[in-house]
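To: structure desk
From: M.T.
Subject: fold request, one chain
Message: Could you run this one when you get a chance? Sequence is below, nothing fancy, just the single chain.
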Amino acid sequence: MKPNGRMIRGIRAGRKLSLRELEAQTGLNRGYLSRLEREQVKDVGSDQLRRVAAALEVPEGLILDEETTP
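Reply: Done. Structure tokens follow.
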């Protein structure tokens, strides 16, 4: 699955969450989350996507790149 990094960053910023806070909530490495937001991660597993979506309190489909969603 290809994540939409700009959407993830926008939602995170709108919720006033730092990368450190998102790291604490998801258990994912802060560097990985930063690369995810900068769209340097081309493919994420469903578990990682689910954890980010849950921490941001949004549906998983909202943070996927539209080109890869059915």
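Reply (cont.): The CA atoms of residues 10 and 27 lie 20 Å apart. Let me know if you need anything else for the meeting.
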